[in-house]
Amino acid sequence: MTDSTKSRERGADKRRRLTAAAARVLHQQGVERTTIADIAHAADVPVGNVYYYFKTKDELVQAALAEHSGYLAELTGELDRLPDPLGRLKALVGTWVGQRDVAARYGCPTGTLAVELDKRAEGDMDLEAGRLIRSLLDWVERQFRELGLPDPGGLAIALVGAYQGMSLLANALRDPEIMTREGNRLTRWLDALPDGAAGHPNP
Amino acid sequence: MTDSTKSRERGADKRRRLTAAAARVLHQQGVERTTIADIAHAADVPVGNVYYYFKTKDELVQAALAEHSGYLAELTGELDRLPDPLGRLKALVGTWVGQRDVAARYGCPTGTLAVELDKRAEGDMDLEAGRLIRSLLDWVERQFRELGLPDPGGLAIALVGAYQGMSLLANALRDPEIMTREGNRLTRWLDALPDGAAGHPNP
DNA sequence: GTCTATATCCAGATAGAC
DNA sequence: GTCTATCTGGATATAGAC
Prior knowledge:
Chains A, B: InterPro entries: Homeodomain-like_sf, HTH_TetR, Tet_transcr_reg_TetR-rel_C_sf. Two copies of one chain form a homodimer. By secondary structure, chain A is mainly α. Chain A has helices at 3-29, 36-43, 50-53, 57-79, 85-98, 100-106, 109-119, 125-146, 152-173, 177-192. Chain A is elongated and about 55 Å long.
């Protein structure tokens, strides 16, 4: 292994650490209140060095978005290994409930990012957050379609919307139990769906 | 009318204008990105004069919260004049759908404020946003209780959560039609509720 | 490639003239 | 009560030494 290879690997490692720290800290503190120094500290990288890897703060936000996108791809990839679509959707709800504590403290990472980026003037990063949410919606819609239910797109909006809503309420009221109770409700709803209750899946 | 009375009225008027402008601009631009100057300009008040009425930016945020709180009280007060609880809830959904364009552009004022204030370190204003949401939840819960439905608190979380979720999705995807479609779904759900479908009101 | 020192900018807040 | 001029702090970003 040459020196330049080692250097490149260390460089890539720092970049990875910065990306992971950005995703974590931006979620916890919010985009506007997080400074480059905060992220550098969390990643254990000297503050001034950050600009070698990311030319602007916006690039760090982009990297955080990509990180969340990768997490979502990983999650749906695992769920896809389950045999039936209904089981996949119920496992998705289970994942949400499993993250109830972080949701109650900081909200859904994707949802809060979308809200914050919508207010941010620069670039069209709000649209990128929209794309991330859209890709979750698409995956959910595919499951409903496989189940042969009518209006799978509408059902996807209902399910993902319920998730965003319960995350926001759990966060605003600082009560993780809201996630548990609403999760149970969603699971019951999913179970009842194929038997013909598809007419009024809401709220 | 004395001079001091006129003065007081003009002063109160400026304060009112600043409060209204704060509620509007903070919703549109977000708390962190909005400067005192932005609010002063929107209220047509000289920038340096703001500090006579509000000693800190936080006080302006508080005033905006109070403004939203007043709006909510006014809305529920009008709805309370409707004869039956089901009609009140359906009218509430209708109000939400009626605001679909502003929701798709800027999100639900209360919800986005709650998300932003949660990230804001200073004070416990996040809890105040929680109280505002809680007061809406309480009013909704009262309607469900009057209808004699089981678990009115859970139903309130489901309905308000659905509203927050559909607002966030409409905003992230910039699509007001999401509000229309989800509103229809909620109305159908409400209509079906008293007839015994109360078992699975979700998502 | 790494890091320090610093330039630049801008928002919040204040002092004090009118 | 009203408004201007200014202070101050903090954050992004850059220049350049190592």
